[in-house]
Amino acid sequence: xxxxxxxxxxxxxxxxxxxxxxxxxxxxxxxxxxxxxxxxxxxxxxxxxxxxxxxxxxxxxxxxxxxxxxxxxxxxxxxxxxxxxxxxxxxxxxxxxxxxxxxxxxxxxxxxxxxxxxxxxxxxxxxxxxxxxxxxxxxxxxxxxxxxxxxxxxxxxxxxxxxxxxxxxxxxxxxxxxxxxxxxxxxxxxxxxxxxxxxxxxxxxxxxxxxxxxxxxxxxxxxxxxxxxxxxxxxxxxxxxxxxxxxxxxxxxxxxxxxxxxxxxxxxxxxxxxxxxxxxxxxxxxxxxxxxxxxxxxxxxxxxxxxxxxxxxxxxxxxxxxxxxxxxxxxxxxxxxxxxxxxxxxx
Amino acid sequence: xxxxxxxxxxxxxxxxxxxxxxxxxxxxxxxxxxxxxxxxxxxxxxxxxxxxxxxxxxxxxxxxxxxxxxxxxxxxxxxxxxxxxxxxxxxxxxxxxxxxxxxxxxxxxxxxxxxxxxxxxxxxxxxxxxxxxxxxxxxxxxxxxxxxxxxxxxxxxxxxxxxxxxxxxxxxxxxxxxxxxxxxxxxxxxxxxxxxxxxxxxxxxxxxxxxxxxxxxxxxxxxxxxxxxxxxxxxxxxxxxxxxxxxxxxxxxxxxxxxxxxxxxxxxxxxxxxxxxxxxxxxxxx
Lengths: 347, 286
Fold this sequence. Notes:
The complex is a heterodimer. Helix content of chain A is 73%, strand content 3%. Chain A is an all-alpha fold. Chain A has a single domain (41-342), classed as ABC transporter involved in vitamin B12 uptake, BtuC, CATH 1.10.3470. In chain A, helix 3 (42-67) packs across helix 9 (195-205). In chain B, the strands form two sheets. Chain B has a six-stranded mixed β-sheet with strand order 6-7-8-3-9-10, sandwiched between helices. In chain B, strands 2-1-4-5 form a four-stranded antiparallel β-sheet. In chain B, helix 5 packs parallel to helix 8 (174-187). Chain B is globular and about 65 Å long. At the A-B interface, helix 1, helix 8, helix 9, helix 10 and helix 11 of A face helix 4, helix 5, helix 6 and helix 7 of B.
């Protein structure tokens, strides 16, 4: 039990950040995100943008798989739907980027609902296979509907414009990606403070008794698919604005596995877990690459020899974390927090 | 004790209530292949009463409950709830109509705290939509505050579980988990509460607590209770009406002490001879 956090009303006890320390850190984080482009180089911002896009998509998958218990391997394909919608709207209509992203989200949500239809009947691995089938079909559509998607050569699109100025460099696109990511994360966190989020968790834990409690399974499963794919669609749209070239190979099945790995490493059923998982999965390979780069002046063959080793180390790290903390990075974080609650006394 | 039960039946909380059957089961039959789980089961549950269904293991009590709450579709017969035939009504809609139940093997949501489990019970009566949920401020926040207040002040306080409100349900003892399940069912604002073995596996003290809660639910909350229970002491003490089932058929029903004294009930529980003769007797007699 924590001391010094007495509440005087229920609203305070239901708050997302319930202590001043938490609120302080949150403000510090937002301030850091705002200050970042002024303090660091393009490459660092490039990486942060990539992490943020992955966070949006991972959080979407976490809502579906971590919170609702429906395993999906279609997240990358839903991102593809969003990316193509944004690209097509930007090329042919030139509508504002915010509108394009919202349409991309809804478009992906619609596809997600269709893909989610079997979920009332099939669960677990069977549903995973059904979603793989969906992603294969979508890949086929991307590659062969040449008049719309440009076929295998894909689409190149103009950059987003914001009040006349074009967002080209990472530090410009950052101002589009960062606020959207923050808003979507707050949305996801809020969702689980209300009846809809509780219904999702109930379906994950015990769908039969959820039904007796008045939760309509099909409606909520499809809603979870829709929200998850909406996040994927927006993430795909951001991805499109970030890279500006979209081909059918941009969103391979491996990318879906990447997101699934991110929520498992980060912590299923935890918003923080999705964030930490996405950061881990995106940044660790980069950090390892950097370490190899540091070695190369001393050891000229480092890049050639260490590249495969890098992948092995990455895999080993994932396995290490799974064994060391099956609940994911979010649980490690909670343990650290608990340690400092009463520090220097033992909890 | 017995006299008070009888007087309860004669003078329930409101005079109108005695007239009305909140739930009636008419000629319910259910079979799984060749197994006849229920055969022409009929009985009524009076509004404001505690009605118990008893019977030996495998008699069909849980099948009966599952048919009433909508998991099983009976082959024949009707379930009427609040004067309306609910045969075609899906379980979530029955929940919204005011039918709540607990399960024999606890069905709490392990990934949630006690508080969230209880709040979940109100699901069908809350109206927060997706957009409000994502924004949280405004309607969703007001709804959650009102819900929290009621859960805290009516349910958690009533069932004496305030010390565990933020614990994960997986960490609780069996008796407490049963109590949380009751709390969740109460949060559903039920008109009838179906309790499947509410005191199974509990010690004497926990059983007494649960008996007190069930009586309070009936008297203070005005909720009708239909329960399946093996603990005869509890059934005889708190029931207004007892229905005894064996081999999927109603053997007898009536006031607790009448049912207790009925020879068929005694033979069903203690056995007279082997199962084959009993079965023969039922086929011949009924």
